[in-house]
């Protein structure tokens, strides 16, 4: 079988984007969008990938002339969807360590407009031990500071040579944190007030929110996919069709970064918080509030839950009656997002394990459900029925006195499953699951401020409602309890 670069080639364009990170997500999200924008004639720019860490290899990029395939698989408007695109917008792939001079030369490109990064949540950090003299500095913000200083020097601080920074690391206010680190290095390394002013006045640090599941190289089915494609591709990347990029900036950059004009789902805003809240409350909240009950009803992956009429009805009530009304965006937007989430949950190509989602469910309930619970309670002056049940379902899932090797062992119909969470959470259930009644256990659990950051027993009727749900689950099983819960 021929290789991808024997059948496809690329048309060189000006490099407009330097991308810190060569991983699956950036290639399946950012580079995909840029490639589509090039095809539609609204961007006409290439990407230079730079590897920001000292380990790993770029040999596969060189062997394939930086060409690769992104295969998007899932459902769109309820129908199965598969898109295979050969991405041709990556012009270079450089190592910041092994190709240091070539990497720094990118800073002097007149055509450069953007810096994109995904250096993981731990990448945007300030380390006072980092040094300007290193080639390159150790941290990503250190590398970026020296890169920007090279550009500032090369163009004598020209106002029109500032860049737009688009970090996609999964931390809140990623752009703000990145700018803060850069400014600290400017002071530490004594790079001067003129450079600092150029950074603040002529470079735009955007905070972003990204949403697309990228599953990467499909090792188990790569040979089969390549057979269908008709070529070998060792950089094959896979993901879901859904994609959302929310870009927060106090300056309007929509005219300078136009993939939205090629049909890509990009939102430019001065406040991304409502969109972050929408994702956490609807997508993550739907998972956390339903999968533990689903697991105890005999399901193992998310898609199975979506196909179970009883679980689906419970999820509908949770999402559309208790979560969506609390999202601080126009309701049609929240409803449309929820419907898109359902399609993603029903992706026939992704087997999303319920036990994987169950990891650290107590902290997830606190972060993803409790804010929605509070808003419902404040509005209606009573606990929301279905989210309260999810609290009881969590407790039913965690109920066990078998703590072995740091893992709590639960039981589902004679089958043992592992419960993984903070050791204090696991110790609480191991010590109290069998010695307390449902009411006593709920009261003790809900009143533990270490778990929730507040005393949940202060919500009137919450303990009695959750205790009744837990008693029902214990007496009749999860399936019968859910059936009674959603009965009209």
Automatic annotation (TrEMBL):
Alphabetized GO MF terms: mannitol-1-phosphate 5-dehydrogenase activity
Listed name of the protein: Tagaturonate reductase
Gene Ontology biological process: mannitol catabolic process
Organism: Caproicibacterium amylolyticum
Sequence ranges assigned to domain Mannitol dehydrogenase C-terminal in this UniProt record: 273-473
Catalytic activity: D-mannitol 1-phosphate + NAD(+) = beta-D-fructose 6-phosphate + NADH + H(+)
Keyword Electron transport (UniProt): no
Keyword field: NAD, Oxidoreductase
UniProt keyword NAD, yes or no: yes
Domain Mannitol dehydrogenase N-terminal: 16-251
One term under GO cellular component: cytosol
NCBIfam families attached to this UniProt entry: PRK03643.1
């Amino acid at each position: 079988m021929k290789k991808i670069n024997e059948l496809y080639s690329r048309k060189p364009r000006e490099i407009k984007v330097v991308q810190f990170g060569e991983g699956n997500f950036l290639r399946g999200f950012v580079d995909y969008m840029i490639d589509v924008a090039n095809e539609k004639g609204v961007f006409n720019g290439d990407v230079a990938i730079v590897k920001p860490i000292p380990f790993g290899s770029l040999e596969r990029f060189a062997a394939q002339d930086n060409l690769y395939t992104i295969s998007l698989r899932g459902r769109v408007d309820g129908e199965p969807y598969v898109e295979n695109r050969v991405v041709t917008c990556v012009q270079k792939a450089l190592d910041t360590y092994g190709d240091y001079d070539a990497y720094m030369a990118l800073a002097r490109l007149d055509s450069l407009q953007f810096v994109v990064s995904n250096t993981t949540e731990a990448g945007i950090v300030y380390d006072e031990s980092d040094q300007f003299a290193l080639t390159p500095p150790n941290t990503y913000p250190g590398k970026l500071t020296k890169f920007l200083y090279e550009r500032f020097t090369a163009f004598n601080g020209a106002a029109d040579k500032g860049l737009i920074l688009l970090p996609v690391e999964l931390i809140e206010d990623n752009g703000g944190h990145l700018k803060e680190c850069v400014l600290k290095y400017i002071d530490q390394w004594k790079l001067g007030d003129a450079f600092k002013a150029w950074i603040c006045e002529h470079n735009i640090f955007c905070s972003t929110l990204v949403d697309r599941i990228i599953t990467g190289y499909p090792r188990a089915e790569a040979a089969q996919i390549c057979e269908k494609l008709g070529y070998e591709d060792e950089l094959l990347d896979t993901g879901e069709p859904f994609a959302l990029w929310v870009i927060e900036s106090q300056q309007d950059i929509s005219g300078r970064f136009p993939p939205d004009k090629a049909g890509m789902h990009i939102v430019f805003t001065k406040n991304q918080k409502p969109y972050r809240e929408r994702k956490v409350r609807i997508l993550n909240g739907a998972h956390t509030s339903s999968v533990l009950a689903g697991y105890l009803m005999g399901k193992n992956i998310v898609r199975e839950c979506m196909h179970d009429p009883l679980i689906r009805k419970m999820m509908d009530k949770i999402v559309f009656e208790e979560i969506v009304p609390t999202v601080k965006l126009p309701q049609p937007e929240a409803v449309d997002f929820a419907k898109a989430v359902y399609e993603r949950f029903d992706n026939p190509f992704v087997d999303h394990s319920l036990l994987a989602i169950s990891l650290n469910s107590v902290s997830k309930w606190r972060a993803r459900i409790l804010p929605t619970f509070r808003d419902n309670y404040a509005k209606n002056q009573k606990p929301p029925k279905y989210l309260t049940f999810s609290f009881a379902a969590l407790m039913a899932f965690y109920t066990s006195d078998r703590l072995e090797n740091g893992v709590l062992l639960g039981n589902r119909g004679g089958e043992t499953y592992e419960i993984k969470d903070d050791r204090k959470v696991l110790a609480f259930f191991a010590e109290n699951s069998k010695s307390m009644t449902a009411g006593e256990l709920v009261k003790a659990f809900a009143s533990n401020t270490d778990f929730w950051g507040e005393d949940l027993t202060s919500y009137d009727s919450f303990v009695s409602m959750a205790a009744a749900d837990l008693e029902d689950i214990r007496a009749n099983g999860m399936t019968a309890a859910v059936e009674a819960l959603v009965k009209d």
